[in-house]
Amino acid sequence: MEETVSSTKDRQRAAARARLEKEMAERASSARKRRQRQAIIGSALAVVVIAGAAFFIVQALKDDKGTETTASPDPSASTGADPAANLPPAGPGTVNCVWTPSAAEGGGGKVKDVGLPPVNVPNTGKTTLTFETNLGAISADIDLSKAPCTGASFKHLAEKKFLDNTKCHRLVNKDGFKVLQCGDPFATGAGYRDTDGTGGPSYTMVEENLPTNAEKPYPAGSIAMANTGQPGSTGSQFFICSEDTVLPANYTLLGTINKGLDIVRNVVKAGDDGAFEPNPGGGRPKTEVVIKTMTLTAA
Known about the structure:
The protein has helices spanning 2-60, 75-79, 148-159, 261-270, and strands at residues 94-96, 99-101, 110-112, 120-122, 126-133, 136-143, 166-167, 170-174, 177-182, 199-201, 203-205, 222-225, 238-241, 253-259, 290-298. The chain contains four helices and 15 strands. The model is unreliable at 1-9, 31-59 and 66-81 (pLDDT under 50). Strands 7-15-5-6-14-12-13-9-8 form a nine-stranded antiparallel beta sheet. The chain is α+β, with helices and mostly antiparallel strands.
């Protein structure tokens, strides 16, 4: 009888142990599946956030080159070679610039062939960039010690009358993002066309003088260069900030408006037609801005 009782208790203990082991195994399996789901969701969110950020960076103030000439690849990206390695040494008060030729009619966009600016350019002094528009003069101070290559590019383009009789093709009027975008040599004539914003010069350049103030990267009155979101894709398109604008610090700060900011503000306030909503945002300015001439003079 005692043996019978003992055997029963052993069986009960074994059964209880089996149930416990089964429960622990099920819990471990559930926990493992839960961790896997969390990992997958976390990864998916990370991808969405990264992709969203990348899309915003590329789309927010791109050179409108989703349909425009794509930037020529950086020669150093695939070969590891320094594109400036074969340039002659820069003399006092100068710097060497790298101009990457753009393929004509590449990437669905347009290229206006104006040759290449000089390789060796000044990196001291200041110049004044002036746009005579149908609404009045808009001018900006450029510090060549900060943006020598971009300044040299605009000097070259001004000499070629590159932007004469062109119009500003895009406007964005949103909280923290208020800009007027111009610089397409093919945006001409009456009214707007789907191709406006798809043009540029026959070269691109490396970004320079990127903002260092994360809280206020592009203050009101800034004139900065648009690009495709890829390094070395700066061309001729630029944007003027009518108010403080928060964007990733990926766009060359060319200079600061010293005259005509009120013109830009009035144009931005007048709004746009929403042609570029929801992405990249904004639209064509309701108040047309035509650049009659562009000049660059010593300050």
